[in-house]
Design a protein that fits this description.
A two-stranded antiparallel ribbon has the order 1-2. It is mostly helical and 348 residues long. The chain contains 12 helices and 2 strands, in the order αααααααααββααα.
């Protein structure tokens, strides 16, 4: 591997920008670009890509072998709820732990493909225990996994007692299977709107600031939130209280919400295998949100940011557009998307 400084040039703030900048999903643009549209569906992070299939597989294993029998769940009990908590905690450790170990403890690839050159360190008083990592781990397990488990236990109890409508694979196989990609898309839209809510100033000051302490995020940052934010972030599972579903859909929905942020917040564009950039990792689109705070509230798969004027792809033009939006907000003007804004010479 060539010298990192030569291969991955950084600006004076230590920022590195990948060549493949984020783009809105081609599924919502015309004319359709078939190759990009197929990538949205079958690419690694696609609706039916390897990452989604991995989480569906983990869900199937969890449902078949690591979920208490429905008969036990007809009555609330510490035993079976604790089993759910331990299973969810172990899954989070399985996903976030190896990423953190490889990228931040062993530093196996140095700062190659890292968006921000800085690594978390101790002695920072804004974090619990003076450590970004231990602060994140605390919020993940004490708040995140607890609320995730509570929502799951409540839903499974309701299914076990016939309170929620239940769909079986053998009677509705197409609907049953389509629910998985539908959950994936629903989560993108739900994340955008709830994320905008958490940036409402009173709410941000009360809760969302905990997540945004991670200006340079790592794998444990993704699910690190204040309990008030976990309640909103995970609330998408309520979809299954309205639409007929199978309990496995609730398990998948909450597992997807709890586990996918680890990879998305890894802080690295790619993870090297034998010094080759083999596996796509962190989400640069969302990293820009952590850097600038008021852009990229959602995802590129459901391009609500593009439609509502908060899209930032990391380019100089997008940065100038954001700065122009800030100026208009200060002047009290209504936001109008920029077009052809000149680039400031002090930006890369």
């Amino acid at each position: 591997m060539a010298d990192s400084a030569a291969t991955f040039p950084r600006d004076r703030r230590g920022e590195w920008v990948p060549e493949d900048l984020p783009k809105p999903s081609p599924a919502f643009s015309r004319p359709w670009q078939i190759k990009r549209a197929l990538n949205v569906v079958f690419g690694f992070e696609g609706i039916l890509g390897w990452q989604s299939l991995i989480y569906i597989g983990l869900t199937a294993i969890s449902w078949l072998f690591l979920t208490p029998d429905m008969a036990r769940m007809r009555t609330f009990g510490i035993g079976w709820i604790a089993e759910l908590y331990l299973r969810n905690a172990a899954l989070l450790l399985l996903i976030a732990g190896p990423l953190h170990l490889r990228l931040y403890v062993l530093k196996s690839q140095g700062d190659r493909y890292k968006f921000n050159a800085r690594f978390p360190d101790g002695g920072n008083r804004k974090f619990l225990f003076g450590s970004q990592t231990w602060d994140n781990v605390f919020w993940c397990f004490v708040s995140g996994v607890t609320i995730w488990t509570a929502f799951e236990a409540l839903s499974l109890w309701a299914y076990a007692n016939g309170i929620l409508p239940w769909v079986e694979f053998r009677t509705n196989p197409v609907y049953f299977l389509l629910m998985f990609p539908a959950i994936h898309l629903f989560r993108q839209a739900h994340f955008y709107w709830t994320h905008r809510l958490t940036h409402w100033k009173p709410y941000y000051r009360a809760a969302h600031y905990v997540h945004h302490k991670n200006v340079s995020p790592g794998p444990w940052s993704g699910f690190s939130m204040h309990p008030l934010e976990h309640l909103i972030y995970l609330s998408g599972f309520l979809l299954h209280w309205i639409l007929p579903s199978h309990p496995i859909h609730v398990v998948y929905h909450l597992m997807h919400a709890g586990l996918t942020p680890a990879n998305g917040h890894s802080g690295f564009h790619r993870v090297e295998v034998k010094e080759k950039p083999s596996v796509k990792s962190g989400d640069y689109f969302h990293y820009l949100h952590h850097r600038y705070f008021d852009c990229n509230y959602g995802t590129t798969q459901v391009p609500l940011d593009k439609w509502f004027g908060s899209f930032h792809d990391g380019s100089r033009e997008a940065h100038e557009a954001m700065r122009g939006r800030h100026r208009r907000i200060k002047l009290g003007r209504k936001y109008v998307p920029d077009a052809g804004v000149p680039v400031s010479p002090d930006l890369r």
